[in-house]
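Task: encode each sequence below as structure tokens.

Item 1
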Amino acid sequence: MTSPEDATAVVRLDLRAGAAALATPQAVRDRVADQLGRAGLPEPDYPLFLVTDTPAGLTDHQLQYELLSGYRAVGETRILVLLVGSSPGSSADGEEAYLPDRRLVRPTTLRASTTGLVWAGDLRSARTALDRREPDDPASLAVLVDLLSVPDVFVRVLENLRKLPDSVAAPGVRLLEQDLPTEVRDRAWRDALTRFAGEDTGAGDPVDIVPDARLPEPLRALVTGRDSRGQGHRRPDGQANLAHRTCAESLDRADEDLVALRSFPGLLHPARRDALEADLHQAREDLGGFRALVERALQGGGGAAAPTAEATARLGALGLRVPAADRAGERVGEGLRELAGTLLGDGLALRSVAQHFTALAGRVEPVPGTALLHRLADHSEESVTRGSATEYAAPPRTPGAVLLMAGAAGLLGGLWQWPAVLAALVVPVLFVVVALLGANRLRTGRRAARWTMGPRVAAVAGAVAGAAVAYAADPPLWLGGTGLIVGLGLTAEAVRRLWRDAADSWAAGRGTTALRTALDGLDSLLAELVREHWAAEERLYCADAARSVAGMLRATAAAADAQAAPEPLAPAGAGGSGPYEDDDWLSAPSALETPESGAADGGHGRRRLGRRPRLGQHPGPERRSRLGQHPGPERRSRRRPGRRPVRRGPRSVRRSLPGRVPRRS
């Protein structure tokens, strides 16, 4: 079923003239059909009638209102009556008097819930309620009628009228605004325009980004949609996935060789180290191939401009999968309008809203692939080598448990009496031999790996302490033999831990950790490139539209500032620079002030600068004679051709005049 809000046109009828022609239902229907036909609109299912009438016409045109309220249509008929003018000033019997503009007689036909009245009063732009000017301003009525002819405005006004007593409203802005002094009103408007424009703090100042939850759905999809993409950015059968898998497999084999190297056979035999170095060399070559593919993808992923469909096709040829846009940018314009309405509704100034739109453009705009090329340096071969050297810059720190085991092994192995005390040297000698063998096994070029000195020192100190204890306590031989066996066990565990840590440190120095980090970084760079290509055209359109809106808002703010700037006044005493400088606008009587007005206040009837003169008054004979004077030769020589704006004076004569003074009529 069609909703009443689906109405597409407002039928306008003026009953102030020609109401007699609408005396039959057919005449009303013909008038409606003629108006809609000229506009190219069909017969509405839910008619909206905007009727212009006078307060007295509410009772004089009861027949016309009955015909309109009974207009035959599919849905209900809505009527909004715009009343212009004053109501009758007294009741029918004359016993009770009413002030003008205070009493309104409304027939029963116009008391339905689908009818509302807007009483505009007079449209003569009177400064106060006591001022009476004739006739009404037709331009003011035309603007009001055009505004109420918008279907959305019509429905909104009618809904708001239902909340008021008797569904009648009278705009009262004129009563307050026109009664204010001119200086106060102008200052209030300037302040309001300045606040509405906001402060120009510079485009580079930070601004709070609108949370994603507050963004309209079309914009939120473009901002957050790319963050959920990038999973599975490599096609299984593509070049990118093949290069990545080859490098990852080489690194996996290197990890397996490292596990073998960390065991005791790795300490004793050099074959496992050779296998690890071969796999690391192969991984470096495979990583170089994957890095070259990533570089080609970045160079082909859009130039200085945003990514294009051709760039997306080139990425597809490299085995990268760019997700579809999923119609993400169909309602970008609607989303921008909704966001602007939300921000302005929150009370933000124009320039602040413009900053939010600029920030939104930066968030949603796609980044071309060439803008990501500089990040390849973070994963280059030199970077991998530099990272490996940093990892292997110093030997691994010896854990405290290893030092305790070395000291305990030396102590237990030294519990001997002379001449068996020489057996106390077994544990320290084992630590020294393992250190020399391990350093030689992890040799890099001509330089042997550095081995930590802590375990050897602890073993020697433990052996000395054990010999001293044995000399003082004189233990039996079986106790010394048992201590030596336990000490050898502790030595084996300490050596295993030392070799494991040394092998890990050496492997990190050879690049196992740096190569894995570089591979993951390059793959993340590819994923980011694919995310930037998602809905690139829609996001670029959204970014351009957001920047356009921001520019329009800043231009509007600049125009508001220009309107709010007070007009400069001519400096006092500056004369002789123009053909009209003899006319003293500051001290001479107003051109629209009668001589009687000056006499009525004791000769002080001259208006001060900024006071509004009374409209409708004509200049006196003395003033007309001054305006009719012709410029002298000096003035004619300084006269410029074309039209020349008159200096600021009374509003009624603030207009452009010809270059010559008009002759007095």
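Item 2
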Amino acid sequence: MKKIVFFFLMTILIASCHQEELSSVPDEPEGKQPVFDLSEEEVLQGCIYVKLKEEPAGEVRVRSIGNTVTTGVKVLDRAAFSLKIERMERTFPYAGKFEERTRKEGLHLWYNVWFSKETSATRAATEVAFLDGIETAVPVPKIVSRATPETAWSLYGVRTGEWLFNDPDLSRQWYLDNPGTESWQKKGADIRLFDVWKQYNGNPAVIVAVVDGGINQEHPDLQDNLWTNPDEIPGNGMDDDGNGYVDDIHGYNFVDDNATLVPHRHGTHVAGTIGATNNNGTGISSIAGGDGTSGSGVRLMSCQILKSLISIGGEDPFIAAAIKYGADNGAVISQNSWGYAATRAGRNASSYINPVHKEAIDYFIKYAGCDNKGEQLDGSPMKGGIVLFASGNANTSDPRIAAPADYEKVVAVAAIEADYRKASYSNYGTYTDISAPGGSLDGDGRIWSTTTERSNNYEYLAGTSMACPLVSGVAALVIEKYGVGKKGFTPEALKEILYQSAYDLDEYNPRYAGQLGHGCVDAAAALEIDVSNLHPFILKSNQITDNMLIFSVSSSMSGNGKLILYNGIGSKVLDLHLKLEAASLHAVDITKLSAGYYTLVYQAKGMEIREKFIKY
């Protein structure tokens, strides 16, 4: 959903959620660095990310002797005294049994460089970036969760009926099955889950890494579905399984750099939506929380990057390590309801993803469920991983207010309300891949889930933060059907299933046509889709009113292709050579074409597709 093609130019448009992102510029000559369009308030002071061109020859340790500061990295010693460098550590810690692939991907070359806060972080990054032997140097962006900060407490929407599961709060979860009985609801504006539960309701082979605040391990609705590290002995102060982390039983706290998870309101809410225990007579039902029998349900891995209250930004440089941890420890879904804390409109027409986060995301996609060679492990339900991000809550399509959701390799999730309409706060844009219910801001139609406080540890929240785990949960069910007990299921196939099964939202949101992804996630359709007969080409709308021709291709037609447009009398009016990614939305600017009837011809891999459309 991310690539945009303008007449003879391909450009990547991006957007995100609640907060904004940074800007990138085209590659510059060797020695030049990307412009990081961030204010000092939007980045962590006293620390930058630095990637070396070569591995240091000896020990990396900061020493101060008189007026000399040395780091063990010769290329940095020139700046060590002027910046008052205090310490350095690998951004991606030594990975034990996963060190081989960590080094293969060059992640061992990244360092967090701590220095005096008397020097601004952006200035420090600029100075270091131009040193010989430095591949890149960038500030550390602050992050925030993608939920709205206030909570509504009225217990609306309670209804009676026959339910598959006996969880008492299921009747409040309209987003699983919307009855349309309230004034703020429309029947069917949900994820269409109930029929799916009869056969697919979560499998422990599917592990979801919740990169967020810490999951409340004591919550009675979450205890049974927490991921447990099978080879780690709790509390012995040793790294028993050789993964580089000590005593990581249910995950790891990357804020405090220890295995003590601090229960967090936002992270616990997100986790409950995906995998709270079903049919246990307690609290809520979740998408993939099992059927109440012992051992059923997905497993929730807590990768803690937030510790403070819901709206306060994280300032920790180990976020990338948290994403990587999921891949190294069995997760195949990385759930991320956070984004950069930037708030200003961008100067450029493109966004920026911090290169450290980009490499961590790429690593998860490549190595989740796999061995050091990238081959699928026995018992893993997928060859590679899928990374999902909430798009943000700023009600904008500004490409700068997106990251990391705008990155083309992740699944960017927008939010709708209980009447099919885009949530008032939700970001939107052609970078968006899919939508899901996220709740409204006016007190009605929010998302009810587990938490760490309030009403018996359950509460209503709204935001793209709440929409994103709905898609992660449905993804877990799709993996359960097509991947568990089988070999060869891939993230690309998963995305195609999610996107092609999504139901259309454009008719309810004409102003945002083509900017809410492929539509709203639909669990029933996703579990019924014929994977052997996925559509190779989908034209998003055959009636074009906003001058953007939006379409997607499946893996069978991805890569190099040719797009030709003919007008109503058969004359060729556009001829483009494109390189397209499967399952992403692509857009062609047809502003210069006059109103009328057209035929689109797309050719790739020996196949040809013809579609007709009207431009108004």
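Check on item 2: The first strand starts at residue 3 and ends at 6. Confidence is low (pLDDT under 50) at residues 4-34, 150-160.
End of task.
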